[in-house]
TrEMBL record:
Keywords: Amino-acid transport, Cell membrane, Membrane, Transmembrane, Transmembrane helix, Transport. This is Branched-chain amino acid ABC transporter permease. The lineage of its organism: Bacteria, Pseudomonadati, Pseudomonadota, Betaproteobacteria, Burkholderiales. It is found in: Cell membrane. One of its GO terms (molecular function) is transmembrane transporter activity.
């Protein structure tokens, strides 16, 4: 069976691989959306935090002999702790200023973090072994999909949907949203808004660290792995709607699939199709697909 002259197994295999890439887009854009939606900060250092998550996991396994599963928990905590330090010492003073100041600060942090890791490890990349439990592949009928990639999709969806549920459907999420709109009113109810803001930023960058650990066995761990991805992730956030949690998840997964299918029908266009979609969406709906029109 063929689709537009292409064998069905080829189309379906690219669809599956696109879903894997879309899982990374969804998780990274989710962290960006949480930070922007709740703190109004354009966090350009998100790619560097993603890279740090992969490197912290690699160092824990290489130097300390810890397992992949231990680092899957510890690396996001380490990255989140660094995010909390950045928020308390630098970002906190920029909340009342124009978004451009936060963007410039986080861009500078990106250059600093990437420079430090480049000086120690170069740019060639470090190999990262797939955990033994997730080796092998599953026969989907049209392709053999590595078990680790299935795990990436499942873990990403679980984390993304859990985050959406907490922010949109729980009392904690209501406090977070209310704290960004009217912090003084929320403080009157006994809520420590500055602490809540700090933990929110830490959680947002911890999501990037978690995505980095998931990506490490698929791509080589390199200081440039975040900068190669962050522009696409920003495009995903813009298409979904700045600050929209659900928009980031749905758009990330959808664009990963679109990118995968483009590799079948028009491979030369696969690296730019996301930006074409962004231009079209901005022309038709400037607030994004799930964003709120002002």
């Amino acid at each position: 069976m063929e689709i537009f002259g292409y064998p069905l197994p080829m189309v379906m295999s690219q669809l599956a691989l696109g879903l894997v890439n879309g899982s990374f887009y969804a998780m990274l854009s989710l962290g960006l959306a949480v930070i922007f939606g709740l703190l109004n900060v354009i966090n350009f250092s998100h790619g560097a935090m993603y890279m740090m998550g992969a490197f912290v996991a690699w160092m824990g396994m290489t130097y300390l002999g810890l397992s992949y599963w231990a680092m899957l928990l510890l690396a996001p905590i380490v990255v989140g702790a660094l995010g909390i330090l950045i928020e308390k010492t630098m970002l906190r003073w920029l909340y009342k200023l124009d978004h451009l100041y936060g963007l410039l600060l986080t861009f500078g942090i990106t250059l600093l973090v990437e420079g430090v890791f480049r000086s120690f490890y170069g740019v060639s990349g470090q190999p990262f072994e797939t955990p033994e439990l997730l080796t092998g592949a599953t026969d989907l009928g049209f392709m053999m999909l590595p078990n680790y990639r299935l795990w990436v999709v499942a873990a990403s969806l679980l984390v993304c949907l859990s985050t959406w549920f907490v922010i949109e459907k729980t009392k904690l999420g209501a406090y977070l949203r209310a704290g960004t709109e009217n912090p003084k009113l929320v403080e009157a109810f006994g809520v420590n808004v500055p602490l809540m803001v700090t933990l929110t930023y830490g959680f947002g960058v911890a999501l990037a660290g978690f995505a980095g650990v998931l990506a490490a066995p698929i791509i080589q761990v390199s200081p440039l792995m975040g900068s190669n991805l962050i522009i696409v992730v920003f495009a995903v956030v813009v298409i979904g709607g700045m600050g929209s949690i659900l928009g980031s998840i749905v758009t990330g997964l959808a664009l990963g699939v679109i990118e995968g299918l483009t590799r079948v029908f028009y491979p030369e266009f696969s690296s730019t199709v996301v930006f074409l979609v962004m231009v079209i969406v901005l022309l038709l709906r400037p607030a994004g697909l799930f964003g709120k029109e002002k």
